[in-house]
Amino acid sequence: MTDSKGSTRVRAAGAKRQRLMSAAAEVVHRQGAERTTIADIARAADVPVGNVYYYFKTKDELVAAALSEHARRLGTLTGGLDALPDPRARLKGLVEAWVSQRELAARYGCPTGTLAAELDKRAEGGLDAEAGRVIRLLLDWAERQFRELGLPEPDGLALTLVGAYQGMSLLANALREPGIMDREGARLLAWLDSL
Known about the structure:
The chain is mainly alpha-helical. The model has no long low-confidence stretch (mean pLDDT 93). 81% of the residues lie in helices and 0% in strands. The protein has helices at residues 4-31, 38-45, 49-55, 59-82, 87-100, 102-108, 111-120, 127-148, 154-175, 179-194. Helix 6 (102-108) packs across helix 9, helix 8 packs across helix 9 and helix 9 runs antiparallel to helix 10 (179-194). The longest helix is centred in the N-terminal third of the chain and has 28 residues, at 4-31.
């Protein structure tokens, strides 16, 4: 027999953990890992600070949770794009999704790329490799699309595409110019059509 109160508590705990992960992803993207506090994340998730420690013992665990959330969001995006029948349309959909985040990119840069760069500067390691794994998920997905198109060197093409995204989001952020995302996104779409 299932205890309905117990299952309700489990669902509530899962929802609270997910709120914390989502808040961690948002706050760390806006403020960076070093400037973000556990209290900042608790406030954004609308969770008492003391409750955060039930789910995440350290700030680094919250940063890892933010990276997991970035990976989950990437999986949701690419999963939706996988429903498209044509790999070129999937790749173009990815570029269009990037461009649709132009304001966010101009203000804070790429969520995973900026975090990877910040974490790489830390003396203690581990989280920088985790950020690299999230970027690797994107590279692998793009490589599969180029391979399905039958193009030579799909790994190189994936690297070119993701590198172009990192570059355009970095420049949009550095110059605080969202239009860079529009212009470079249009170039990427034309490039994909030319392949």
